[in-house]
Amino acid sequence: MRSPLTNPFQAGSDVVPDVWAGRADQLSDWRDVLRPRRLAGLYETGRTILGEPGTGKSSLVRRIARDAADAGDWVTPQIRMPSGADPLKLVASAVLRLADAAGLRASARQRVTDILDRVEQVAISGFALSVRGSDGPEPSTALFDLLVELGDAAIRQDVVVLIHIDEVQNISDDAALSQLLITLGDALSHEVEVRLPGGGSALRFLPIVVYLTGLPDFEDRAGARKGATFARRFRTVTLAALDEGDLLAALQPFVISGWETADGDGGVDRVTMRTEAARAIVELCCGEPFLFQLAGQGAWNAGQADVVTEDDVLAGWRSAEGEASAHVERILGRLPPREHEFIEAMGALAPSERTLTNIAESMGLASATQVGPFSRRLDTTRGIITRGKPYSFRNRAVEAYLTTDWPRA
Fold this sequence. Notes:
- The chain is built from 18 helices and 13 strands.
- The protein is of the alpha/beta class.
- The strands form four sheets. Strands 1, 2, 3, 4, 7 and 8 form a six-stranded parallel beta sheet that branches. A three-stranded mixed beta sheet has the order 9-10-11. It has a two-stranded antiparallel sheet with strand order 5-6.
- The longest helix has 19 residues, at 139-157.
- It is globular.
């Protein structure tokens, strides 16, 4: 019944948890806007999903990718960018695998064969291919040409090509990043002529969808250094904490009818959850998707009975307090010194006293204008605070860590 083997909560990065909470807007965007419009040949920008560690960026797009694959679409694996990696090389390898799945290797057209050969060189040498001055088109041009051929094949099969590039903030080479963004953006905005059933022809966009996921720092690099082109071709969403209502809704199946699980004898049983246990999980996780899974995982493993109680939640959480602290410390540790100082000064004030003037004074600065840039970044870029009258914390885990005994249960 209840055991680590049957636990439906997954507190890890890059996984699609069985107990899913929130992100309805982003899932609806894929299901109701992005996929239908690209499939119909209409234009839609790429999507950039950013957020602090633990906000579920990669899990969100992996769920979208899984849904796309279930619908028959052609989906790259999650293309993770290790620090210092060549992005063109990794993306070229992933797109080549899609080309194989689409049957482009069997094409009798010499142009397709030449493109595949060139992109194979890119998959081996990446951006360095252009530096060496090797014969043939630039790596970005070859990759763009293959994306066009892949998009044409997708039109014929009535499917979408989905490309997911993760940890984009790790792309350190500005020239390689520029080539990658321009190549993907050009593929998204490329039009091809198609024949209409009743005769004649029309222009349409390729059924290609691109998701970029990473830390909030990426928008500064891509937006500021690549200018308006990136902003026009990619729509950025910064994920914040989940609402309590979304979290309670995710736990409602446990409370109402129970969670179906194996009983150990080849049959099926159900594990239910007390209402107060569900509320305890929601309170402890502070809206953080990672902490929600961590709290649920600990509660499930804390006992073997077919009812999860509040005592189970507290017992499981006590064993996870160190991980919860480390989660918030990772967020704070990434902040530049002045932003970190701003957050700590804000946390030291009573909620009603969190004005920009008071925060500046607590930091030892003479004017609120001196901390304005820090507050804007913490709001619009990082999603940690909300500027208002007074200022407030959007990241409830950071607030709890700075102002209470949390994560102690």
